[in-house]
Specification:
about 325 residues; alpha/beta; TIM Barrel; eight-stranded parallel barrel; 12 strands; globular
Amino acid sequence: MNRRTLGRTGLSISEIGFGAWAIGGNAFGNSYGSTDDGESKRAIRRAFELGCNFFDTADVYGHGQSEALLGEALRDVRDQVIIATKVGGNFYNRDIQPLMRERIAQTVGKSLDEIDAGAPLPVSHDANFTPGYLRFAVERSLERLRTDRIDLLQLHNPPLQLIAAMGTYEPLEEMKRDGLIRFYGVSVHPPEEGLAAINATMPDTIQIVYNLARREAEDTFLPTAHAANVGVIARETLANGFLSGRYSADSRWERGDIRSRMPRPYVAQLSALGRRVRELAEQSGGEMTAAQLALKFVLDRTDIACALVGMKTVAQVEENLNARM
């Protein structure tokens, strides 16, 4: 597995990273279908064996389940891997907007006063980037990841006004001084948010959507990030799996899979692109799959340090991590 330098962090990371969203499972309706924890851990270890040293998760993935699986599977090789997680989605019985308390209690099925303060809830109820909440959530992530420091902490889809505000990064600087985190960045959607992060000058990295179907980052964001020596991590490199060429306009997904909620015209558009990628891959004489070809498109950009791809089985790991071979 080739390594690339993650911007000014100086971290040497595998050019393909393990995206751990899917292994969090679909219990809370925001993932990619059912999972098997044993297979998830085998997938993590297989990725490590194949040279992947960059593992990206978020506390909200499975409400801590993804982090817990990574912590367990990588505990004995912790010093050989780079662990990145995200913070901001609030699924705890803490800092709840007063107007939402009754509705959340109805969802949970009991009064929130009967639940321990700070305990996880089966619902993500808000986004929170306040200093007190960030430190609280990071301390919970450290416990689940079974580590004393997070290599890269990323704010998880903060609003534009917070990305641009210098005060947003004060609690991150404090946690960095305290040794809880080594570096920090932001995970964003449109290039405008990424540019705001660069202009704020504080984040070390930016994670942004980039794939064959979403190329908006090419025009201004990627050259600007490269000039500023900000590390770029590409996410959704297979466009929620559609670029694997395995789906059609008529595909259906189980409840809890985010694709089940996507508008049908959008599904038709992405599945058609996926079929075209599969056709092009087949023209290679079987040398690569559609997923590998889609990943190669991202990897061919030298201004991207890492292409994240979601993986929850050993078979997916072996296919995706062989994209360069």
